[in-house]
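Posting this for the archive.
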Amino acid sequence: MALLMKKKIITLVILVVVVGAFSIIYAVLSNSEQPADTGETDTGSSKIMLADFDYINICKIEYVSQTETLSFEKDTDKWYLSSDRSFPLDTTAVTAMATAIASIGAERFVEENPSDISQYGFDHPNYTIKITYSDGTNYTYLIGDYNLFNACNYFMVDGSGKVYMVLSALSDYFNHTLKDLAVLDTIPTFDSEKAVAFRLSSGTDSENDITITDSDKVAAMYKLFTTINTGNYYDYNTEDNELSTYSLSKENRKTITFLYGDVSSDKSVEDLIGELTDGENNGSIPEDVENKLSKYSIHFGVSPSELPDKVLFTVDFSKITYLADKETVNSMLALFE
């Protein structure tokens, strides 16, 4: 009997130790102590409102990440990159930043005036965000380390000394490099069976254009065409004098034009296929039929001296110059030989 009682006591002691240890771990990981009065807005919900403003009144956003510093300003309801208004900025993304940072709800309060801010990542914040409103007031926010246990980031209003936790979704709005925020051209996509022909033009002399209609070569060109993309830009605001330097002026560039259409439903295109001389390097397409086809042109220039394995290219009605793999471009040009 005594032995049984002793075992029960030992089991109870172990249970108490385990529960106590778990409580300590939970307290350390969650930093969940709640103050009697945080001085912040109580909305009646579980969140502590650290900012509750109208995003429309934000006129400037500056943020420093661990990789770069970006600044945007608004003029007549449109956002621009502060350092260069010609940059093709994704204004929707910047508006989303403004919306998120104007209304900040903390999940919990952690502590006030910590003796060591490095434990929260504020010695090297993930983001330092400065917001300026149209009335001249401004706020600076620090987003620190990520707390895996709570799926939150530590957060501080600069100068307040108070540490909070906010959902990590807030930092996602600012997880952009400048290249991420560029609105780039989109090369159209179409099914391979809709590819009809492709044409090479050199400079402005259309008399020397070469049109390829051979089905095997069209299929080969289609595969190469699908590898060209605008994800890597070289110059987002190419001036006329730079076009000449890049051999992208109308007089110097090589242009490959893709002609495509829905041959399965467009009778005129079906007629076209029958009229083309398959296998010739300079097939002719009746003008009335060609006018019913969709066209897309890519203009190729030279390789930048610092990137010899790339070739510069641009598309119609765009001031952005992109980079393509030189090997791919050479393979495309070889199909015209």
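The CA atoms of residues 103 and 205 lie 59 Å apart. Confidence is low (pLDDT under 50) at residues 23-39, 276-281.
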